[in-house]
Amino acid sequence: MQCLRLEQPGLLQLRQHAIPEPEQHQVLLRVSHCALCRTDAKMFKQGHRDLVLPRVLGHEICGFHPETRQSFVIWPGRACGACGSCLRGAENLCDEMCILGFHRDGGLAEFVTVEKTALIPIPADLPGEIGCLAEPLGCALNALQQVNLVEGEKLLIFGAGPVGLLMALAAASKGIETHIAEINPAKLQRSREFRARLNIAAAQDEDTQFDAVINAAPTAETLISGLVKLRPGGCFCLFSGLTDAAELSIQILNDIHYRQLRVAGAYGCTSAQMREALELLSNRSQDVLLLIERRLRLEEVPDALLQVLKGEKFKFIVKL
Description:
The protein has about 325 residues and is of the alpha/beta class.
C-alpha cells in the first residue's frame, strides 16, 4: 500500500509499505478520507510529546471495510477500559491511551488497522469528506460539555479557524447565543457565509459579559481577555493549549478568586461525543461543506501542512 510516513520532524516521505495485518481485536479498513489538523502540522514541523517516530500521521479518519463496504469513522484512541476514567465514560482521559497517528500508524495511508470498538458506522448518504470531521467536532462537543451552557446563554469562542467554527456550529445547534472573536479580519470575512447561515455573531468590543468562553486559538491573550469578558461565576474552557503561557501573570489567579470564575480543560473526545458529532454533521452537511478548503492527494500533504500552520485556511481533506 501507499502511505505518507513522518521519519523525523520536517521529513515526510511517500512510501510503499505492506498492508498491515489486524490483530484479533482489530479490523482492517480501506481509508477513504483523512482530514488534516493543526496538531498534524505541529508534529510535522517540530514533533509532539506523544509522537513515536517513524509514524504515519492522521487521526481524523473515514474508511470502509474492504469486504462489506460499510463505512465508518474512527474514534482514534485505544483505552484500557478498566481505569477510573474509562469506567465513568471519560475514556479520552485514560492513562493507557494510545492514539492513531501518534502512538500507532494513522490514516495517511491506503489501509489502517483499528480497534473493533473504535468503529462508528456513518449514514450511507453522508459523504466521507464530511464524516471524517466527526473527530474535531467531537472534541468541540467535549469542550461544550465542560462549560455546560443551556439554551439562551452566551458563549464567546476565540478563533474563526475550522475547529472554532465547528464548535460554533455545535453551540448554535444547541440554542446557545454564540459569538466568535478573531484577530485576523481576513479569516473573519472568509467565515461570513458560514456564520450567517447559523446566526453566529462576530464579537464586538462592547460584548463584555459571557456565560462561558472557549479558546480555539493558542495565544495566552485568549485567556487574559476571556476571563475579563466572563460574567461573575462564568467558565473559561482551555480547549487549545497556550503557546506563550509564560506571559500570564499571577493577577489572573486573583481574578478567578474574586469573581468566583471557573476554568476547565478539554482534551480530545469520547466515542459517544463522536457519535453525537456524526448526527450533527448529517443535519448540517451543506453548512459544513463551506469549511472544506481543498481535497488533496497524499503527495500534496507536506505543502498543505505548512499552510495549516499559517492558520489562514479551512480544512484540507486527503482523499485516498
